[in-house]
Records
---
Amino acid sequence: MQNQEKITIELPASLLSVFSKKHISPSRKVKELTILELYREGEISSGKAADLLGMDRFEFIRYASRLGIPFLDITNDELDSDIKNVKTAGCK
């Protein structure tokens, strides 16, 4: 088990009521959103994020993708460049 620390954050009561309506644990949701954001920013890997959330890596990648967080974060220019490099190398 990983070392863990507890933190305290203040949230408006209106947000807490949203959690209670959906029967969601606020601490679990804040943890999940923090991990997803760190992954989106490239601060942690998909494997690390999956481990922290208790998921299989591919399950996490699918979950993040459904939330609009891409597994591959590549621009069109980077993709075009990669395609040109592959063609130049003689690959089809």
---
Amino acid sequence: MSQTSQTSQTYSRVRLPGYSGLQRVIVQQGAIAAIQPQPATATPASDSIDLAGDWLSLGGVDLQINGALGLAFPDLSPATADKLTPINDFLWSQGVDGYLPTLVTTSIENIQRSLAVLAAVLHSSPPSPTAAIPGVHLEGPFLNPAKRGAHPQEYLQPLTIDQVKRVLGEYAQVVKVMTLAPELDETGTVIPYLRSLGITVSLGHSLATAEQAQRAFDQGATMVTHAFNAMPPLHHRQPGLLGAAIAHPQVHCGLIADGQHVSPLMIEILLRAAQYEQGIFLVSDALSPLGLPDGVYPWDTRQIEVRQGTARLPDGTLSGTTLGLLVGAQNLVRWGICPVEQAIALATLAPRRALGLPTDYIGQPAHLLRWHATATGELTWERISGNHPLH
């Protein structure tokens, strides 16, 4: 149901991530105007919508998504640019307010061609509610070859400021996040340089020790890409990159909660150690077959096979998922390892916090998600209003 045609609307008996108890949410002129505590015994006003204890949240923000509806973002070109519109609409229908198209390791020419297309999109204003693109995530090409995963080795680059400038070209302002392996930077100058450009640095596909990771955090890195994957595991004498990240109060770790990339038990350990949405945010890491049925699909010069939402290369290498962002939140509740409030926050508030986007509800466009938790552990959602999300 949609209330976009009304200038004022009140939702009663609402639960909101970050708020204690029931709330009354007042929407005026398409934006959240006020949030007021509401006693559990209060009778909802006749002109309000009674949510009967269901949760409301902002839409999801996916900071790592590689494609959808058959288009891989590194394959973007002027000829395929029109495919972004249906992708944005599809992601909006999947509860995503905004996302960072993620360019995995490929040739510098391909990266800059894709960035040119996305730069043009960033300066356009869609006429209707749709998933917004606040910027781009470059996952590579500055990765450790020993932890490259599904990234093609022939396109990996040495991590120097000169090479970074070559990759970014004239599109540095388009890039919001860059994943890199910090141990490749012998000078210690690359992360400060990227931060000076306004780019958030995420550590990943790396063999960094805890000491090397801590040095990168001191230099300005604030994120970790898909925790546990493409990095050494936690070890009681060698905590490594992930151990250093969990212990750091200003570092946010992305997490793929599909049950394949990380076991539910390890997810529970990670969530508890990192204080849930304070240190973790969910990502989909979805590939181009997102929104398409299982099957075999092209992926750069190779093929991937998708089975039950998990994508692998022919040699069995795990390469990503075709499950949407909010499926991760639903999984956490279904597995019984995360309270509903934290699960919702991990997909909605935590990614915004990691990217430096506003997390205060007041003043946000009222493009809200309503979540309902069943007695059997299922978590469902629906959009109840809509305006353009992220600007």
---
Amino acid sequence: MAINQINGTPPVRASGLTPRVQNGGEERKPASVSQGPALADDEVSLTAESRCLRELQDGLLASREEPFDTARVNALRDAIAAGEYRIDNERLARKLLDFEQALEG
């Protein structure tokens, strides 16, 4: 069972597009879509980690340097396409374990 409306109010999508409501197989636009009153005291606070990530992102964009080694990526792409790329399963497993341990602290 699909629920298209709750209490007679059509759903509001975050994209800002006006939703369409189905009425017995006929599609129509709702008469009005209200997102509620804006409160003057609404605020957003960011964690220290999010601020740090933002600073890193801004730094990368400002430096205009590519965040990866283009030559290495192209070499890997060519090796994969030629069927010459081999995966070292033991090294991969070690790296995954190291990553998991780093996440746990």
